[in-house]
Amino acid sequence: MERSKYFHIWLGISALLIAGSAAFFSVFGLSKLFAGAALSVVVMAGSLELGKLVSAAFLYRYWSVVSWFQKIYLTTAVLILVGITSAGIFGYLSNAYQGATIEFEKQSTTLTYKEDRLEQLQEDKVYLKDELVQSIASLPDNYITAKRKLREEYNPKVLELNDQILDVKQDISDLKVGLVQTGVDVGPAIYLARTFNTDIDSVVKFFIFILIFVFDPLAVMLIVAFNQALVLRAEEKNSRPRLGTTVNPEKKKRWWEVYGERKPVIPKIKILNKLKKESKKKEIDLKKGGVPIEEDI
């Protein structure tokens, strides 16, 4: 099978990029988790990432040579390190998501509080009006002055509630405009959350889990595939004849072999016919008592 001359190079580059990205995200995420010893965690996690990739390549190249204990231990270690790397990537992406949405969530919480406050003020206004109506209705009709005093007492309270309602409505409008501007950073997540009728956190967690299930396992498999390509390439080079060596003439293609045909059979038929004629001539000479004369064929 004909293989691309430079495919193994591209395979190695892609494996290096994906493995390097996964290692960076994982190391950064773990350093955020253990912020008290960030530098030590970076060194430790970086060493483990390199050891994981080297172990995967070693298992592929020397699987038939190493003992079962090494196979079991190294395979288990690689799988555990894949899980640790995935956890680090999850921490990194979660931290990035929280950094992008913290202002959005802050404004959303404030908006919810303002909307609840507006609803309460409107209820207070309705209650105050009902109380005024009931107080006036409880007085006799001839108590006009008392009714007027009641209205004068309640009017400042109603006006105050109106002012508060207007202020809260203005705050709600400003918050909604701010949410539109802040929501640009998380616009796709908001759209998906509305599409699937769920919250933003659930959508983001779903996508993060998809990424971590593909990211680091793909990096390890590409490292193994790169080693496989190198081994196959070395075997192909060893199977080719070196310069200055003679090629087996039996393996050379004859002049009549264009598509793998066999040698023409016409010369063989002529030789067989000649041998038959010579054998008949010898039989006739023997019957006559003569001695057959040997001729070169």
List keywords for this structure.
297 residues; mainly alpha; elongated
Task: Explain what you see.
Helix 1 (7-33) runs antiparallel to helix 6, helix 2 packs across helix 6 and helix 5 (187-195) crosses helix 6. This protein has helices at 7-33, 38-61, 68-138, 144-182, 187-195, 200-239, 266-287. The protein is mostly helical. The chain has one domain (7-239).
Quick structural gist:
It is built from seven helices and no strands. The protein has helices at 7-33, 38-61, 68-138, 144-182, 187-195, 200-239, 266-287.
Shape descriptor:
elongated
Helix content: over 70%
Arithmetic mean pLDDT: 77
Q: How far is the first residue's CA from the last residue's CA?
A: 47 Å
> Whole-number radius of gyration?
45 Å
- Reading the helices and strands in chain order gives HHHHHHH
Helical stretch count?
7
Number of strands: 0
User: For the report, how would you describe the main beta sheet?
Assistant: none
The tally of domains stands at 1
Secondary-structure-derived class:
mainly alpha
The fraction of residues assigned to DSSP E strands is under 5%
Give unreliable regions as ranges: 255-259, 293-297
Task: Summarize the helices and strands and which ones pair or pack.
Layout: H1 7-33, H2 38-61, H3 68-138, H4 144-182, H5 187-195, H6 200-239, H7 266-287
Helix pairs in contact: 1-2, 1-3, 1-6, 2-3, 2-6, 3-4, 3-6, 5-6
